[in-house]
Amino acid sequence: MLFNTIDFVVFLPIAILLYYLTPQKFRWVLLLTASYYFYMSWKVEYIFLIAFSTLVDYTTGILMERSERKKTRQLLLFLSLSTNLGLLFFFKYFNFAVDNLNLVFDQIGIQQDIPLMNFLLPVGISFYTFQTLSYSIDVYFGRQKAEKHLGYFALYVSFFPQLVAGPIERFSRLTPQFKIKHAFTYDNLANGLRLILYGLFIKMVIADNLAALVDEVYAAPENYSSLDIFKGLMIYSFQIYSDFYGYSIIAIGSAQLMGIKLMDNFRTPYLAKNIAEFWQRWHISLSTWFRDYLYFPLGGNRVAKQRWIFNIFTVFVVSGLWHGASWTFLIWGALFGVVYLIEYLFNKTFKIEKEFKPYSIGHILLAIKTFLIVTLIWVFFRSESFESAINIFRLLFENIGISPAELVIPNYLILFFSLFIISDILLYNQRFDKWLSNFPVIGRWTIYSFLMFAIIVFAGVENFPFIYFQF
Protein backbone atom coordinates (compact mmCIF):
# COMPACT_ATOMS: atom_id res chain seq x y z
CA MET A 1 0.00 0.00 0.00
CA LEU A 2 1.64 3.19 -1.18
CA PHE A 3 1.12 6.51 0.58
CA ASN A 4 0.15 8.17 -2.71
CA THR A 5 -2.74 5.85 -3.55
CA ILE A 6 -6.49 5.82 -2.96
CA ASP A 7 -6.04 2.70 -0.80
CA PHE A 8 -4.01 4.67 1.73
CA VAL A 9 -6.34 7.67 1.55
CA VAL A 10 -9.12 5.31 2.67
CA PHE A 11 -7.00 3.26 5.09
CA LEU A 12 -5.47 6.12 7.11
CA PRO A 13 -8.66 7.96 8.20
CA ILE A 14 -10.27 4.66 9.22
CA ALA A 15 -7.19 3.72 11.25
CA ILE A 16 -7.08 7.15 12.93
CA LEU A 17 -10.80 7.14 13.71
CA LEU A 18 -10.67 3.66 15.23
CA TYR A 19 -7.52 4.62 17.13
CA TYR A 20 -9.28 7.40 19.02
CA LEU A 21 -12.44 5.33 19.55
CA THR A 22 -10.47 2.44 21.02
CA PRO A 23 -9.69 2.40 24.78
CA GLN A 24 -6.01 3.02 25.50
CA LYS A 25 -5.29 -0.51 26.78
CA PHE A 26 -6.42 -1.98 23.44
CA ARG A 27 -4.88 0.58 21.09
CA TRP A 28 -1.78 -1.54 20.60
CA VAL A 29 -4.04 -4.31 19.24
CA LEU A 30 -5.61 -1.92 16.75
CA LEU A 31 -2.28 -0.46 15.62
CA LEU A 32 -0.64 -3.86 15.31
CA THR A 33 -3.56 -5.17 13.27
CA ALA A 34 -3.50 -2.09 11.04
CA SER A 35 0.28 -2.37 10.62
CA TYR A 36 0.16 -6.03 9.66
CA TYR A 37 -2.68 -5.37 7.22
CA PHE A 38 -0.71 -2.46 5.75
CA TYR A 39 2.32 -4.67 5.17
CA MET A 40 0.35 -7.66 3.88
CA SER A 41 -1.14 -5.47 1.14
CA TRP A 42 2.19 -6.00 -0.68
CA LYS A 43 2.70 -9.72 -0.16
CA VAL A 44 0.89 -11.66 2.53
CA GLU A 45 3.57 -14.32 3.00
CA TYR A 46 6.29 -11.89 4.01
CA ILE A 47 4.46 -10.90 7.18
CA PHE A 48 5.81 -14.16 8.61
CA LEU A 49 9.35 -12.77 8.27
CA ILE A 50 8.45 -9.78 10.44
CA ALA A 51 6.67 -12.04 12.92
CA PHE A 52 9.65 -14.40 13.07
CA SER A 53 12.17 -11.57 13.63
CA THR A 54 9.85 -10.12 16.26
CA LEU A 55 9.63 -13.41 18.21
CA VAL A 56 13.39 -14.02 18.03
CA ASP A 57 14.35 -10.56 19.27
CA TYR A 58 11.59 -10.44 21.88
CA THR A 59 12.73 -13.77 23.33
CA THR A 60 16.47 -13.11 23.16
CA GLY A 61 15.95 -9.68 24.74
CA ILE A 62 14.21 -11.14 27.78
CA LEU A 63 16.73 -13.97 28.13
CA MET A 64 19.70 -11.58 27.82
CA GLU A 65 18.30 -9.41 30.59
CA ARG A 66 17.74 -12.42 32.85
CA SER A 67 21.11 -14.01 32.27
CA GLU A 68 24.11 -13.03 34.41
CA ARG A 69 26.62 -15.03 32.39
CA LYS A 70 28.41 -12.99 29.77
CA LYS A 71 28.88 -15.95 27.42
CA THR A 72 25.18 -16.73 27.51
CA ARG A 73 24.35 -13.12 26.74
CA GLN A 74 26.84 -13.16 23.88
CA LEU A 75 25.29 -16.30 22.43
CA LEU A 76 21.84 -14.75 22.64
CA LEU A 77 23.04 -11.59 20.95
CA PHE A 78 24.70 -13.69 18.27
CA LEU A 79 21.40 -15.54 17.77
CA SER A 80 19.57 -12.24 17.27
CA LEU A 81 22.21 -10.81 14.93
CA SER A 82 22.63 -13.99 12.89
CA THR A 83 18.87 -14.47 12.51
CA ASN A 84 18.16 -10.94 11.34
CA LEU A 85 21.28 -10.50 9.24
CA GLY A 86 20.86 -14.03 7.90
CA LEU A 87 17.37 -13.23 6.63
CA LEU A 88 18.61 -9.95 5.22
CA PHE A 89 21.51 -11.69 3.45
CA PHE A 90 19.33 -14.46 2.05
CA PHE A 91 16.67 -12.19 0.57
CA LYS A 92 18.84 -9.22 -0.40
CA TYR A 93 22.41 -10.36 -0.97
CA PHE A 94 22.29 -14.06 -1.83
CA ASN A 95 22.01 -13.60 -5.58
CA PHE A 96 24.70 -10.90 -5.54
CA ALA A 97 27.06 -13.23 -3.70
CA VAL A 98 26.25 -16.14 -6.03
CA ASP A 99 26.76 -13.99 -9.14
CA ASN A 100 30.21 -12.99 -7.97
CA LEU A 101 31.09 -16.51 -6.85
CA ASN A 102 30.10 -17.90 -10.25
CA LEU A 103 32.24 -15.22 -11.88
CA VAL A 104 35.21 -16.33 -9.77
CA PHE A 105 34.57 -19.95 -10.75
CA ASP A 106 34.58 -18.96 -14.43
CA GLN A 107 37.84 -17.07 -14.05
CA ILE A 108 39.65 -19.99 -12.45
CA GLY A 109 38.17 -22.57 -14.81
CA ILE A 110 35.70 -24.33 -12.51
CA GLN A 111 32.63 -25.45 -14.46
CA GLN A 112 30.14 -25.05 -11.66
CA ASP A 113 27.30 -22.51 -11.71
CA ILE A 114 25.39 -22.07 -8.46
CA PRO A 115 21.71 -21.44 -9.29
CA LEU A 116 20.13 -18.11 -8.35
CA MET A 117 17.06 -17.77 -6.18
CA ASN A 118 13.93 -16.31 -7.75
CA PHE A 119 11.91 -14.31 -5.23
CA LEU A 120 10.80 -10.76 -4.56
CA LEU A 121 12.74 -8.68 -2.05
CA PRO A 122 10.52 -8.15 1.01
CA VAL A 123 9.56 -4.48 1.17
CA GLY A 124 11.37 -2.58 3.93
CA ILE A 125 13.41 -5.55 5.16
CA SER A 126 16.54 -3.42 5.62
CA PHE A 127 14.60 -0.90 7.69
CA TYR A 128 12.79 -3.15 10.16
CA THR A 129 15.85 -5.41 10.45
CA PHE A 130 18.01 -2.51 11.60
CA GLN A 131 15.26 -1.38 13.95
CA THR A 132 15.13 -4.75 15.70
CA LEU A 133 18.93 -5.05 15.76
CA SER A 134 19.28 -1.75 17.60
CA TYR A 135 16.94 -3.06 20.30
CA SER A 136 18.87 -6.33 20.79
CA ILE A 137 22.22 -4.53 20.94
CA ASP A 138 20.90 -1.98 23.43
CA VAL A 139 19.50 -4.71 25.69
CA TYR A 140 22.79 -6.60 25.54
CA PHE A 141 24.79 -3.56 26.69
CA GLY A 142 22.24 -2.64 29.34
CA ARG A 143 21.18 0.58 27.63
CA GLN A 144 17.61 -0.67 27.30
CA LYS A 145 15.32 -2.75 29.49
CA ALA A 146 13.84 -5.76 27.73
CA GLU A 147 10.19 -5.34 26.74
CA LYS A 148 7.99 -7.91 28.49
CA HIS A 149 4.85 -7.17 26.48
CA LEU A 150 5.00 -9.01 23.15
CA GLY A 151 2.30 -6.84 21.63
CA TYR A 152 4.11 -3.56 22.25
CA PHE A 153 7.35 -5.02 20.97
CA ALA A 154 5.66 -6.33 17.81
CA LEU A 155 4.16 -2.88 17.28
CA TYR A 156 7.60 -1.29 17.63
CA VAL A 157 8.90 -3.52 14.85
CA SER A 158 5.94 -3.00 12.51
CA PHE A 159 4.39 0.45 13.16
CA PHE A 160 2.90 1.15 9.73
CA PRO A 161 3.83 4.81 9.07
CA GLN A 162 7.55 4.04 9.20
CA LEU A 163 7.58 0.30 8.57
CA VAL A 164 8.77 0.11 4.98
CA ALA A 165 11.12 3.11 4.60
CA GLY A 166 11.79 4.57 8.01
CA PRO A 167 12.64 6.66 9.83
CA ILE A 168 14.52 3.90 11.66
CA GLU A 169 13.36 4.50 15.22
CA ARG A 170 14.94 3.48 18.53
CA PHE A 171 12.91 1.41 20.96
CA SER A 172 13.46 3.86 23.82
CA ARG A 173 11.96 6.70 21.81
CA LEU A 174 9.06 5.05 20.00
CA THR A 175 7.61 2.36 22.28
CA PRO A 176 6.92 4.58 25.33
CA GLN A 177 4.69 6.68 23.09
CA PHE A 178 2.48 3.65 22.40
CA LYS A 179 1.86 3.29 26.13
CA ILE A 180 0.69 6.87 26.64
CA LYS A 181 -2.91 7.84 26.04
CA HIS A 182 -2.94 10.42 23.26
CA ALA A 183 -6.07 12.54 23.21
CA PHE A 184 -7.33 13.95 19.95
CA THR A 185 -6.05 17.52 19.55
CA TYR A 186 -6.38 20.15 16.88
CA ASP A 187 -2.60 20.68 16.81
CA ASN A 188 -1.90 17.02 16.05
CA LEU A 189 -4.56 16.99 13.35
CA ALA A 190 -3.40 20.25 11.75
CA ASN A 191 0.32 19.49 11.86
CA GLY A 192 -0.17 15.92 10.67
CA LEU A 193 -2.32 16.93 7.71
CA ARG A 194 0.08 19.74 6.78
CA LEU A 195 2.96 17.31 6.60
CA ILE A 196 0.96 14.74 4.63
CA LEU A 197 -0.23 17.38 2.15
CA TYR A 198 3.27 18.80 1.66
CA GLY A 199 4.76 15.32 1.38
CA LEU A 200 2.24 14.33 -1.30
CA PHE A 201 3.03 17.52 -3.22
CA ILE A 202 6.77 16.84 -3.07
CA LYS A 203 6.33 13.21 -4.13
CA MET A 204 3.59 13.45 -6.74
CA VAL A 205 4.25 16.85 -8.30
CA ILE A 206 8.03 17.18 -7.91
CA ALA A 207 9.56 13.70 -7.64
CA ASP A 208 7.28 11.87 -10.10
CA ASN A 209 7.59 14.55 -12.79
CA LEU A 210 11.35 14.70 -12.35
CA ALA A 211 11.52 10.89 -12.53
CA ALA A 212 10.22 10.88 -16.10
CA LEU A 213 12.99 13.28 -17.18
CA VAL A 214 15.69 11.27 -15.39
CA ASP A 215 14.49 8.05 -17.02
CA GLU A 216 14.80 9.69 -20.45
CA VAL A 217 18.44 10.60 -19.88
CA TYR A 218 19.52 7.32 -18.29
CA ALA A 219 17.68 5.24 -20.91
CA ALA A 220 19.67 6.74 -23.80
CA PRO A 221 22.39 9.15 -22.58
CA GLU A 222 24.14 8.99 -25.97
CA ASN A 223 21.23 10.97 -27.45
CA TYR A 224 21.87 14.00 -25.26
CA SER A 225 24.47 16.72 -25.14
CA SER A 226 26.86 17.06 -22.24
CA LEU A 227 24.75 19.93 -20.92
CA ASP A 228 21.53 17.93 -21.05
CA ILE A 229 23.22 14.94 -19.39
CA PHE A 230 24.46 17.19 -16.60
CA LYS A 231 20.95 18.64 -16.25
CA GLY A 232 19.67 15.07 -15.97
CA LEU A 233 22.16 14.31 -13.20
CA MET A 234 21.14 17.39 -11.23
CA ILE A 235 17.48 16.57 -11.73
CA TYR A 236 18.10 13.10 -10.28
CA SER A 237 19.65 14.68 -7.19
CA PHE A 238 16.38 16.46 -6.57
CA GLN A 239 14.24 13.51 -7.64
CA ILE A 240 15.70 11.16 -5.03
CA TYR A 241 15.63 13.91 -2.41
CA SER A 242 12.01 14.89 -3.02
CA ASP A 243 10.96 11.24 -3.32
CA PHE A 244 12.48 10.13 0.00
CA TYR A 245 11.86 13.43 1.80
CA GLY A 246 8.24 13.30 0.66
CA TYR A 247 7.84 9.76 2.02
CA SER A 248 9.46 10.67 5.32
CA ILE A 249 7.24 13.63 6.10
CA ILE A 250 4.11 11.72 5.07
CA ALA A 251 5.19 9.03 7.56
CA ILE A 252 5.87 11.64 10.25
CA GLY A 253 2.54 13.35 9.53
CA SER A 254 0.59 10.06 9.65
CA ALA A 255 2.05 9.25 13.07
CA GLN A 256 1.46 12.83 14.24
CA LEU A 257 -2.27 12.36 13.65
CA MET A 258 -2.15 9.84 16.50
CA GLY A 259 0.02 12.06 18.69
CA ILE A 260 3.09 9.89 18.02
CA LYS A 261 6.28 11.72 17.13
CA LEU A 262 8.78 10.19 14.69
CA MET A 263 12.26 11.62 14.28
CA ASP A 264 13.02 14.04 11.46
CA ASN A 265 14.86 12.23 8.67
CA PHE A 266 15.96 15.22 6.56
CA ARG A 267 17.12 18.75 7.29
CA THR A 268 17.79 20.56 4.01
CA PRO A 269 20.75 18.31 3.08
CA TYR A 270 21.65 20.19 -0.10
CA LEU A 271 22.48 23.25 1.98
CA ALA A 272 25.27 21.32 3.72
CA LYS A 273 28.75 22.86 3.56
CA ASN A 274 30.58 19.52 3.28
CA ILE A 275 29.98 15.79 3.00
CA ALA A 276 30.13 15.30 6.76
CA GLU A 277 27.32 17.81 7.25
CA PHE A 278 25.41 16.34 4.31
CA TRP A 279 25.21 13.00 6.12
CA GLN A 280 24.09 14.78 9.28
CA ARG A 281 21.13 16.09 7.28
CA TRP A 282 20.38 13.23 4.85
CA HIS A 283 18.59 10.05 6.00
CA ILE A 284 19.40 11.03 9.59
CA SER A 285 17.95 7.89 11.16
CA LEU A 286 20.28 5.66 9.13
CA SER A 287 23.33 7.90 9.60
CA THR A 288 22.88 7.93 13.37
CA TRP A 289 22.28 4.16 13.36
CA PHE A 290 25.64 3.54 11.67
CA ARG A 291 27.28 6.03 14.00
CA ASP A 292 25.97 4.33 17.16
CA TYR A 293 26.10 0.67 16.13
CA LEU A 294 29.10 0.50 13.79
CA TYR A 295 31.31 3.59 13.99
CA PHE A 296 31.44 3.82 17.79
CA PRO A 297 31.95 0.05 18.32
CA LEU A 298 34.85 0.21 15.84
CA GLY A 299 36.45 2.83 18.06
CA GLY A 300 35.09 6.02 16.55
CA ASN A 301 37.71 8.75 16.54
CA ARG A 302 39.32 7.58 19.79
CA VAL A 303 41.86 5.52 17.92
CA ALA A 304 45.03 6.02 15.91
CA LYS A 305 44.67 8.09 12.76
CA GLN A 306 45.06 5.10 10.43
CA ARG A 307 42.40 3.17 12.34
CA TRP A 308 40.06 6.19 12.29
CA ILE A 309 40.40 6.38 8.50
CA PHE A 310 39.58 2.68 8.33
CA ASN A 311 36.54 3.21 10.58
CA ILE A 312 35.17 6.05 8.44
CA PHE A 313 35.73 4.17 5.21
CA THR A 314 34.14 1.00 6.60
CA VAL A 315 30.99 2.86 7.66
CA PHE A 316 30.53 4.39 4.23
CA VAL A 317 31.17 1.13 2.36
CA VAL A 318 28.73 -0.78 4.59
CA SER A 319 26.21 2.05 4.15
CA GLY A 320 26.53 1.66 0.39
CA LEU A 321 26.02 -2.09 0.64
CA TRP A 322 23.00 -1.54 2.90
CA HIS A 323 21.33 0.37 0.08
CA GLY A 324 21.65 -2.37 -2.48
CA ALA A 325 23.28 -5.62 -3.47
CA SER A 326 25.47 -4.47 -6.35
CA TRP A 327 28.92 -3.07 -6.97
CA THR A 328 27.46 0.30 -7.92
CA PHE A 329 26.07 0.81 -4.41
CA LEU A 330 29.33 -0.33 -2.85
CA ILE A 331 31.29 2.11 -5.04
CA TRP A 332 28.76 4.84 -4.24
CA GLY A 333 29.39 4.38 -0.52
CA ALA A 334 33.16 4.13 -0.97
CA LEU A 335 33.26 7.39 -2.97
CA PHE A 336 31.44 9.20 -0.19
CA GLY A 337 34.01 7.83 2.25
CA VAL A 338 36.93 8.99 0.07
CA VAL A 339 35.50 12.49 -0.36
CA TYR A 340 34.70 12.70 3.36
CA LEU A 341 38.31 11.88 4.24
CA ILE A 342 39.77 14.22 1.61
CA GLU A 343 37.63 17.11 2.83
CA TYR A 344 38.52 16.42 6.44
CA LEU A 345 42.26 16.22 5.81
CA PHE A 346 42.23 19.22 3.47
CA ASN A 347 40.32 21.42 5.92
CA LYS A 348 42.45 20.33 8.84
CA THR A 349 45.66 21.05 6.92
CA PHE A 350 44.74 24.40 5.40
CA LYS A 351 42.04 25.47 7.88
CA ILE A 352 40.09 27.30 5.18
CA GLU A 353 36.62 26.12 6.13
CA LYS A 354 35.12 28.48 8.67
CA GLU A 355 31.78 28.63 10.40
CA PHE A 356 29.78 30.65 7.91
CA LYS A 357 26.41 32.03 8.83
CA PRO A 358 23.46 30.55 6.90
CA TYR A 359 23.06 32.09 3.45
CA SER A 360 26.39 33.91 3.62
CA ILE A 361 28.52 33.90 0.45
CA GLY A 362 30.87 31.35 2.00
CA HIS A 363 27.99 29.06 2.95
CA ILE A 364 26.45 29.31 -0.53
CA LEU A 365 29.72 28.52 -2.31
CA LEU A 366 30.43 25.54 -0.06
CA ALA A 367 26.86 24.27 -0.47
CA ILE A 368 27.18 24.45 -4.26
CA LYS A 369 30.46 22.55 -4.07
CA THR A 370 28.89 19.85 -1.90
CA PHE A 371 25.83 19.57 -4.12
CA LEU A 372 27.96 19.09 -7.23
CA ILE A 373 30.02 16.38 -5.56
CA VAL A 374 26.92 14.58 -4.32
CA THR A 375 25.31 14.88 -7.76
CA LEU A 376 28.25 13.18 -9.45
CA ILE A 377 28.38 10.40 -6.86
CA TRP A 378 24.63 9.78 -7.29
CA VAL A 379 25.45 8.50 -10.80
CA PHE A 380 26.58 5.18 -9.31
CA PHE A 381 23.45 5.03 -7.15
CA ARG A 382 21.13 5.51 -10.14
CA SER A 383 23.01 3.45 -12.73
CA GLU A 384 22.10 -0.20 -13.22
CA SER A 385 25.73 -1.25 -13.65
CA PHE A 386 29.28 -0.01 -13.27
CA GLU A 387 29.59 0.13 -17.07
CA SER A 388 26.47 2.32 -17.32
CA ALA A 389 27.86 4.76 -14.75
CA ILE A 390 31.20 5.00 -16.55
CA ASN A 391 29.35 5.55 -19.82
CA ILE A 392 27.49 8.49 -18.28
CA PHE A 393 30.75 10.11 -17.22
CA ARG A 394 32.33 9.45 -20.62
CA LEU A 395 29.43 11.02 -22.50
CA LEU A 396 29.42 13.93 -20.06
CA PHE A 397 32.77 14.97 -21.53
CA GLU A 398 32.43 13.63 -25.09
CA ASN A 399 29.00 14.95 -26.10
CA ILE A 400 29.88 18.63 -25.95
CA GLY A 401 27.84 20.37 -28.63
CA ILE A 402 26.04 17.16 -29.62
CA SER A 403 22.28 17.37 -29.26
CA PRO A 404 20.27 14.88 -31.32
CA ALA A 405 17.63 15.03 -28.56
CA GLU A 406 16.76 17.78 -26.12
CA LEU A 407 15.77 17.40 -22.48
CA VAL A 408 12.62 19.50 -22.33
CA ILE A 409 11.43 20.58 -18.89
CA PRO A 410 7.76 21.71 -18.93
CA ASN A 411 7.11 25.27 -17.78
CA TYR A 412 4.74 24.18 -15.04
CA LEU A 413 7.41 21.89 -13.61
CA ILE A 414 9.96 24.71 -13.66
CA LEU A 415 7.49 26.79 -11.62
CA PHE A 416 6.74 24.10 -9.04
CA PHE A 417 10.36 23.00 -8.83
CA SER A 418 11.47 26.60 -8.24
CA LEU A 419 8.90 26.98 -5.47
CA PHE A 420 10.11 23.73 -3.91
CA ILE A 421 13.73 24.96 -3.93
CA ILE A 422 12.68 28.28 -2.40
CA SER A 423 10.64 26.53 0.29
CA ASP A 424 13.58 24.24 1.09
CA ILE A 425 15.84 27.27 1.56
CA LEU A 426 13.24 28.91 3.79
CA LEU A 427 12.94 25.69 5.81
CA TYR A 428 16.65 25.59 6.71
CA ASN A 429 16.69 23.89 10.14
CA GLN A 430 12.87 24.11 10.29
CA ARG A 431 10.00 21.74 9.56
CA PHE A 432 7.13 22.59 7.25
CA ASP A 433 4.31 22.19 9.79
CA LYS A 434 5.96 24.43 12.38
CA TRP A 435 6.95 26.99 9.76
CA LEU A 436 3.42 27.12 8.36
CA SER A 437 1.85 27.53 11.80
CA ASN A 438 3.34 31.06 11.95
CA PHE A 439 1.21 32.16 8.99
CA PRO A 440 -2.19 33.83 9.45
CA VAL A 441 -5.23 31.74 8.63
CA ILE A 442 -5.71 33.19 5.15
CA GLY A 443 -2.03 32.57 4.35
CA ARG A 444 -2.21 28.95 5.49
CA TRP A 445 -5.34 28.20 3.50
CA THR A 446 -3.90 29.86 0.42
CA ILE A 447 -0.94 27.46 0.63
CA TYR A 448 -3.22 24.47 1.30
CA SER A 449 -5.33 25.33 -1.73
CA PHE A 450 -2.27 25.78 -3.92
CA LEU A 451 -0.80 22.42 -2.87
CA MET A 452 -4.08 20.55 -3.38
CA PHE A 453 -4.58 22.18 -6.79
CA ALA A 454 -1.05 21.22 -7.84
CA ILE A 455 -1.52 17.60 -6.71
CA ILE A 456 -4.86 17.21 -8.49
CA VAL A 457 -3.85 18.89 -11.76
CA PHE A 458 -0.10 18.43 -12.11
CA ALA A 459 0.75 15.12 -10.42
CA GLY A 460 3.03 12.94 -12.53
CA VAL A 461 1.23 10.88 -15.16
CA GLU A 462 2.99 7.73 -13.96
CA ASN A 463 2.82 6.75 -10.29
CA PHE A 464 6.46 5.90 -9.57
CA PRO A 465 7.12 3.69 -6.51
CA PHE A 466 9.04 5.34 -3.69
CA ILE A 467 12.73 4.85 -4.47
CA TYR A 468 13.69 3.64 -1.01
CA PHE A 469 11.07 0.89 -1.02
CA GLN A 470 13.62 -1.25 -2.88
CA PHE A 471 15.92 -1.19 0.13
Automatic annotation (TrEMBL):
Protein location: Cell membrane
Keyword terms: Acyltransferase, Cell membrane, Membrane, Transferase, Transmembrane, Transmembrane helix
Chief location bin: membrane
One GO term describing the cellular component: plasma membrane
Keyword Ribosomal protein in annotation: no
Keyword Transferase: yes
One BP annotation, GO: alginic acid biosynthetic process
Membrane protein topology class: Multi-pass membrane protein
PANTHER family reported in the protein's UniProt record: ACYLTRANSFERASE, PROTEIN-CYSTEINE N-PALMITOYLTRANSFERASE RASP
Family: Belongs to the membrane-bound acyltransferase family.
Protein name: Membrane-bound O-acyltransferase family protein
